């Protein structure tokens, strides 16, 4: 066999193998007659250093630690004749800790009633003794306009396929304007076993290209893992951690260096 025919055979064989690989479709959906129990733990540390020869600021550092824990249960009922189905969302305790000081978010204990149609929630009422009407309307708007945590491609994926999802983020900087960054998330389908798909997450952080930001540098990276239940059409685990370093030049003598470490764990049990 000459080289030309050998190469052609390899191409044909590779094509057959690629065509034979199983593909999977991913779309996050809420289904009727289910109970979705969500737990979320998020934490971050922001360490600030002043890079300067200024005697008042040289060697000065500041550090803040934040965390949020919450639970939420969504219960859906039987589908009705118009293809919609009722749903009740119950918020458990939402605890925020800032530098060791704990507070309970007033949304804790709130109950939301509504109906799902075509994977969109129509909120009928928000029940809480601790919230004013403005906050209730804010919850209603947020739930009715919520976007999926991950925007999966419409085309099916096979093992080894990747896709990107960009997430904007703002980092407050003491003594300067907030820094706007972009987190570029790359998800790669690693495996599918017993209808549970596992994605490996890699993150790259850069300055936002949407606005001009002078005297600012930002970079970072992160990683994580996502599990998707294909039978239930739902993400059941979404864990990620990343580190961002930002430098903001205040003037010729002072640069503020900020290093942010963030960790998030979100899990959903479906019954």
Which helices and strands occur, and which strands form pairs?
Layout: H1 3-20, E1 23-24, E2 35-52, E3 61-76, E4 85-98, E5 101-104, E6 111-117, E7 120-127, H2 133-144, E8 157-158, E9 162-171, E10 179-193, E11 196-207, E12 216-229, E13 234-249, E14 254-270
Antiparallel strand pairs: 1-8, 2-3, 2-14, 3-4, 4-5, 4-6, 6-7, 9-10, 10-11, 11-12, 12-13, 13-14
Task: Write up this protein.
The chain is mainly β. The chain has one domain: Lipovitellin-phosvitin complex, beta-sheet shell regions. It is built from two helices and 14 strands; from the N terminus they run H-E-E-E-E-E-E-E-H-E-E-E-E-E-E-E. Strands 2, 3, 4, 5, 6, 7, 9, 10, 11, 12, 13 and 14 form a twelve-stranded antiparallel beta sheet that branches. It has a two-stranded antiparallel ribbon with strand order 1-8. Strand 6 and strand 7 form a beta hairpin. The longest helix is centred in the N-terminal third of the chain and has 18 residues. The chain is globular. About 3% of the residues have low confidence.
């Amino acid at each position: 066999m000459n080289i030309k025919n050998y190469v052609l055979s390899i191409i044909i064989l590779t094509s057959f193998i690629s065509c034979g690989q199983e593909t999977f479709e991913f779309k996050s959906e809420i289904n009727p007659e289910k109970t979705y129990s969500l737990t979320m733990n998020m934490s971050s540390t922001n360490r600030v250093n002043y890079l300067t020869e200024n005697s008042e600021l040289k060697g000065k550092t500041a550090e803040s630690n934040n965390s949020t824990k919450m639970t939420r249960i969504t219960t859906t009922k039987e589908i009705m004749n118009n293809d919609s189905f009722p749903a009740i969302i119950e918020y458990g305790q939402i605890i925020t800790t800032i530098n060791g000081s704990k507070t309970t978010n007033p949304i804790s204990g709130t109950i939301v009633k509504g109906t799902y149609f075509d994977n969109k929630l129509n909120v009928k009422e928000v029940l809480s003794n601790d919230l004013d009407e403005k906050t209730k309307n804010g919850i209603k708007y947020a739930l009715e306009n919520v976007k999926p945590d991950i925007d999966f491609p419409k085309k099916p994926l096979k093992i080894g396929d990747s896709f990107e999802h960009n997430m904007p983020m703002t980092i407050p900087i003491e003594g300067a304007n907030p820094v706007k960054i972009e987190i570029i998330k790359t998800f790669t389908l690693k495996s599918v076993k017993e209808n549970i798909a596992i994605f490996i997450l890699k993150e790259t952080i850069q300055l936002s290209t949407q606005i001009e930001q002078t005297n600012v540098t930002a970079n970072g990276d992160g990683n994580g893992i996502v599990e998707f239940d294909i039978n239930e059409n739902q993400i059941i685990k979404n864990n990620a951690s990343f580190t961002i370093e930002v430098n903001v030049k205040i003037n010729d003598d002072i640069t503020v260096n900020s290093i942010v470490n963030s960790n998030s764990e979100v899990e959903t049990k479906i019954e």
